[in-house]
Specification:
Layout lengths: L38 H5 L3 E8 L8 H8 L7 E5 L12 E3 L5 H16 L3 E8 L3 E2 L1 H9 L8 E3 L1 E3 L8 E3 L5 E4 H7 L3 H7 L5 H13 L6 E2 L2 E2 L2 E3 L12 H4 L3 E3 L4 H34 L31 E3 L3 E2 L9 E2 L2 H22 L3 E16 L3 E14 L4 E13 L17 E7 L4 H16 L5 E9 L1 H5 L8 H13 L7 E5 L5 H10 L6 E4 L8 H10 L5 E10 L2 H4 L12 H4 E3 L7 E4 H15 L11 H8 L3 E12 L12 H13 L4 H16 L1
Parallel strand pairs: 1-2, 1-4, 2-3, 12-13, 20-21, 20-23, 21-22, 24-27
Antiparallel strand pairs: 4-9, 5-13, 6-9, 7-8, 10-11, 14-17, 15-16, 17-18, 18-19, 23-26, 24-25
Helix pairs in contact: 2-9, 3-7, 11-13, 18-19
């Protein structure tokens, strides 16, 4: 009201930003400032809302569970408080047990616990009982309109029995809201309140405590915001409640049983949904009216109204292709096959879209016509990243009139499943300070490339003092292993390592020697894993990899212990003899389109924690028992894919570039691994245009 009249209300301040100049005393020694982990901590930001639900022995497994299944996931943080000792916690609930079932003691301990654990983290604290139904979205909207600079005690105001007529307390059954500033001021007086104030009801006790020591009474209206409540009568039918007071209520009380809680949630969800649909219609009407006044006129209205227009490609390479489907089959399959059976989420998606299309047609043409589906003739869909999933359906429909006449007709309908609100997936905290342990397996065929690998490692990690170590894995063929006393095939590499250790006195590069005919990635990793601590972050490299700090930091950030492993897709340069054909090669700045491609067939590079590998490897060992020959048909990617519950993050990595080389594919590996290696070699030769040009020049040379 004060703002409407253009004057500030009581307790309001005119906040103006001011610049605090930085000053450092030159006479004092410089001390490095320790920065906080998150920016919001350093700036003093708080989370918005904390919710506490008071429950009891009789209602913990009934009403409290109903609260948890209906509104708990709508609040950012919700805890349950009880006086039970060693209570059995229902699944999915966070319970704090104080060990004393006296109501006043439970309230006292709850306020103490909230202050101690969450007082410095949240701006608002909402206290409710488990026999209360609260509209979570309405409560969250309420706190966004209240100033955090005031002491707030907001709820359904009730008079004390035989007390002061002016003083009010907030009824606990309808929930109440406390501000952080009030909680901080109240905490020093809680012990005095416990000893001096006698009351049977915990909400009356808390209200009296706030009034006596802070002089603040409960209000039902503050800063133009109303705390609406509704008291349920016995044998209430929520579905038949049409009163405006009921529909506007933030909290409903008392809820006698679980079924009533679910029915209330269903009814309020329906009310909220109707409001949203009405708001969408109003916004669409406003968009239409405003678009008519723009230079484009009514032609500028996109469909659906309010959704982004379809993506307009600037070249043929940017065209988003449509995937064809029927009710039984999909003609664009993940494995590359031309036709596959429609199943799982895709089948559910198609069924829902067809059902929605028929429903929309009936909504538009009833009561004159009634449509029913006969058959899906053709279906097309594509994902447009600017707006969502688009569909085109050719439906064979039977249209029935009010007089009973029917007619079969084909109709094309277009639908859009728009992208909804973007959610940030919570991820565990990681840091770029983690030490990376590089593991480099080497065979005799790799000797020509080791010198370049070690030079790049020294230049990009040792010279820059990056927190990275290197372990070499020498893989001897049994024949070479027998002659190692006379001729060591890796003697040159060991000499290079010795030179590096002389140049960098603080660096040690250990190596491990292994004798095998089939260098299985899993067997080699088993040996390395046992020689390192469980918290080691491994980067499994290949000899053609050019190590740099940019990639190592992404390895650290994309690999999360007990959560995620990272398999980068390196960039493979094409064969320069085919790409340039005697011309001067490109500059050091790689032209990704012309000079190479991302090799999706290679899984040689991987970032993972030793603890995660050991866990997955233990499950694998229990599955295969003593059949070690199975390990020869697997790689590290297969181990994590089939024997861990971790996220497998597979992404292109522009910082991981490999020079062209023709890799030797070991025919003793499994058929799949060998086939992958051959495909990697073939696709790494050159692009199709370069191969076509090479064939053209060869045919011309042959014809002359």
């Amino acid at each position: 009201p004060e703002a409407a009249e253009g004057r500030p209300g009581p307790g309001h301040e005119d906040f103006r930003p001011r610049i605090v100049p930085y000053y450092r005393d030159p006479n004092k020694p410089y001390k490095k400032v320790l920065r906080t982990r998150y920016i919001q901590t350093e700036l003093g930001f708080h989370e918005r809302l904390f919710v506490a639900v008071l429950t009891s022995k009789a209602t913990l497994n009934t009403l409290a569970v109903a609260v948890n299944k209906t509104v708990a996931h709508h609040f950012p943080r919700l805890l349950y408080f009880t006086g039970l000792r060693s209570a059995k916690v229902p699944h999915g609930m966070v319970l704090v047990a104080h060990g004393d079932e006296r109501p006043i003691w439970l309230m006292y301990e709850t306020m103490n616990y909230i202050h101690q654990h969450f007082g410095s983290d949240y701006d608002w604290f909402y206290i409710m009982q488990d026999d209360t139904y609260a509209q979570a979205e309405q409560v969250k909207a309420l706190v966004t309109h209240l100033s955090i600079n005031q002491d707030v005690y907001l709820g359904r105001a009730e008079e004390f029995i035989g007390g002061d007529e002016q003083a009010r307390y907030c009824h606990g059954g309808f929930g109440y809201l406390l501000s952080r500033s009030l909680l901080l001021k109240l905490h020093p007086h809680l012990d005095s309140c416990r000893n001096e104030i006698l009351s049977v009801r915990p909400d009356e006790w808390l209200g009296r405590c706030i009034i006596d020591f802070l002089g603040i009474t409960c209000v039902s209206q503050l800063q133009g915001q109303h705390y609406h409540t509704y008291e349920l009568a016995k044998n209430t039918e929520p579905e038949k409640e049409e009163e405006e007071e009921f529909q506007a209520a933030l909290a409903v009380h008392p809820v006698s049983d679980m079924t009533l809680m679910y029915r209330l949630h269903k009814q309020f969800s329906r009310i909220q949904l109707d409001r949203v649909y009405q708001e969408i219609q109003d916004l669409q009407m406003q968009i239409r009216n405003l678009t008519a006044l723009t230079p484009a006129g009514e032609a500028g209205v996109t469909w659906p109204v309010g959704i982004n227009a379809p993506f307009l490609p600037k070249s043929r390479f940017e065209v988003i292709s449509w995937d064809y489907f029927t009710e039984q089959h999909l003609f664009s399959c993940p494995d590359g096959s031309p036709k596959c059976e429609l199943s799982g989420a895709s089948k559910a998606d198609v069924s829902e879209i067809i059902e929605s299309a028929v429903e929309q047609l009936n909504r538009r043409y009833q009561p004159l016509l009634r449509f029913s589906k006969r058959q899906l003739l053709n279906g097309y869909r594509r994902f447009d990243p600017t707006r969502g999933m688009e569909y085109m359906l050719d439906l064979l429909l039977e249209a029935a009139t009010q007089k009973g006449h029917s007619h079969v007709l084909a109709k094309r309908v277009s639908l859009v499943r728009p992208l909804s609100k973007v959610e940030i997936i919570p991820m565990p905290y990681v840091t770029e300070a983690t030490r990376v342990q590089l593991v480099l397996p080497l065979t005799v065929q790799d000797l020509d490339f080791v010198a370049n690998f070690l030079d790049m490692f020294a230049m990009n990690t040792l010279d820059t003092h990056d927190n990275a170590l290197l372990t070499l894995l020498f893989i001897y063929h049994p024949y070479d292993a027998q002659r190692v006393g006379q001729v060591d095939v890796f003697a040159g590499v060991k000499a290079m390592v010795g030179e590096l250790e002389k140049r960098y006195a603080e660096v040690k590069i250990p190596w491990i020697s292994v004798k095998t005919e089939v260098p299985s990635q899993v067997k080699l990793m088993d040996i390395v894993s046992k020689k390192h601590p469980v918290d080691t972050l491994f980067f499994l490299a290949s000899v053609w990899t050019e190590i740099n700090m940019e990639f190592l930091n992404r390895c650290r950030m994309n690999t999360i212990s007990n959560w995620q492993v990272f398999f980068p897709v390196h960039f493979q340069e094409f064969n320069p003899a085919l790409v340039y054909r005697g011309e001067q090669t490109a500059s050091s700045n790689t032209d990704f389109v012309r000079d190479g491609h991302f090799d999706r067939h290679s899984f040689a590079e991987a970032c993972f924690y030793n603890s995660d590998y050991m866990t997955a490897r233990t499950k694998l060992a229990a599955d295969i028992l003593d059949r070690d020959e199975v390990l020869e048909s697997m790689d590290i990617f297969d181990v994590f894919l089939h024997y861990s519950g971790l996220h497998l993050f597979r992404a292109v990595e522009p910082g991981l570039v490999q020079k062209y080389t023709l890799r030797s594919c070991n025919p003793r590996l499994s058929e799949e691994l060998y086939h992958r290696c051959v495909l990697s070699n073939l696709e790494g030769l050159a692009s199709r245009s370069h191969l076509a040009m090479a064939l053209f020049e060869q045919e011309q040379a042959n014809s002359t």
